[in-house]
Specification:
The structure is a single chain. It contains four helices and 16 strands. With 237 residues, it is an alpha+beta fold. A hairpin with a 4-residue loop joins strand 15 and strand 16. The longest helix has 13 residues. It is globular, with a radius of gyration of 20 Å.
Length: 237
């Protein structure tokens, strides 16, 4: 099994019944926004707001969707507009979906703060105890023994200028290249290889049982839904 790349103490994702809180600007700004950290809306020589100049998207979802922000398991802000900038690895936050994008700010990166955008949960995982090289992961599944996390990775191809009058300029392209991790309760991350045949090896000691299960159910581990089904079964072993 591939050695763990990251070790953390996992923050609890147990959601208690919490009283809905209205948007409190003062609390919101002081606790979760970095006022001096403007969104990285231009990266790799592409202005992310000029969507017609490239294909694909640097975001998980280019639209702002309403979500919630939690700190240490407590609902801090309810119904706030959020989108995940995968290229900059930032959560862009603004008061409402109608608020100008230029007024959005980056969410403070902290393992104590996580967000729920509609039904998707994102946590920030530090690297070797530090924030700088840490990143956001989407929690696909959290079981009794194991969790499945997804890192939204984008493969970027820059614009290619026309080389002659008979060729066309090709726009920049963002392609989704997600990476999946099995995460233990002690916070060890095991990266799932890209090749479907190698993914099965990450299940380690339960390899035989998992081979039998995936074969019997004809599961393609490069398909997220089918990978999830396999992980859920693995969690029962």
């Amino acid at each position: 099994m591939k050695k763990a790349l990251i070790t953390i103490v996992l923050c609890s994702l147990a959601f208690n019944t919490l009283t809905s809180q209205s948007f409190n600007s003062a609390l919101f700004v002081s606790d979760v926004l970095l006022l001096d950290n403007y969104i990285k809306r231009q990266n790799k020589d592409v202005n992310f707001e000029e969507t017609k100049t490239y294909k694909g998207t640097p975001y998980n979802n280019p639209k702002y969707l309403y979500g919630k922000i939690y700190k240490e398991g407590v609902l801090l802000v309810d119904k706030v507009a959020i989108r995940y900038n995968a290229i900059a690895d930032e959560m862009e936050v603004k008061q409402t979906t109608d608020t100008d994008n230029q007024d959005a700010r980056a969410l403070t990166k902290s393992q104590d703060i996580y967000v729920k955008i509609v039904d998707d949960i994102y946590v920030f995982v530090p690297y070797q105890g530090g924030i700088e090289n840490g990143g956001y992961f989407q929690v696909i599944f959290e079981g009794d023994q194991i969790a499945l996390y997804k890192k939204h990775v984008k493969d970027f191809s820059p614009e290619k200028k026309a080389s002659s009058s008979i060729t066309k300029t090709l726009p920049a392209v963002f392609k989704d290249k997600p990476v999946y991790y099995l995460v233990t309760k002690t916070g060890k991350f095991y990266q799932m290889p890209k090749a479907r045949k190698k993914k099965i090896k990450v299940f380690g000691e339960k390899l035989k049982e998992m081979k039998d299960f995936t074969k019997q159910n004809d599961l393609d581990l490069n398909n997220e839904k089918e990978l999830l089904r396999a992980v859920k079964y693995y969690d029962t072993l």
